Amino acid sequence: MKDLIWDKTLSVDVPEIDADHRRLLELFNRLGHAVEDGEPQARIEATLDELISCTDWHFQHEERLMEQHCYPDLPAHRAEHAELIESGRALLQGLRQSGASLSSQQIESLEHWLTGHIYGTDMAMGRYLAEAM
Questions:
Q1: What counts of helices (H) and strands (E) characterise the chain?
Q2: Which residue intervals define the domain Hemerythrin-like in the entry (predicted)?
């Protein structure tokens, strides 16, 4: 598994959001290494749960900033957040029910889940907030 490395291309130019994103990348990398190293299922599930919980907190943080600065695309951004969190929770629930570990396809999906959101809607939000703040 390749680590996700923070670089300027992931920056949304809002330091507090960038700090959150760095933390999410660290958790994603920890999860990938846990799977790759064959760590116990309970540890993998706990790490995925932590990634989902931190992502949920981060999304609430972003939404507070968007509300505070009257971001016009807040409803659509909030809906994307809800969809992402729900898909993460469904993945975790499926793992807990099946006892299976994360597959390489699921890890790849999580990577796209994380980076796709940052490169997509977060960049537009970041441009708006960087000017508004």
A1: 5, 0
A2: 15-125
Whole-angstrom CA distances from 75 to 6, 80, 81 are: 28, 9, 10
Q: How far apart are CA 5 and CA 55, in angstroms?
A: 17
User: Locate tokens 């929770």: which residue?
Assistant: 89
Provide the whole-model pTM.
0.92
Tell me, which fold does domain 8-132 have in CATH? Answer: Four Helix Bundle (Hemerythrin (Met), subunit A) (1.20.120)
1 has pLDDT over 90:
no
Q: What are the extents of the domains in the chain?
A: 8-132
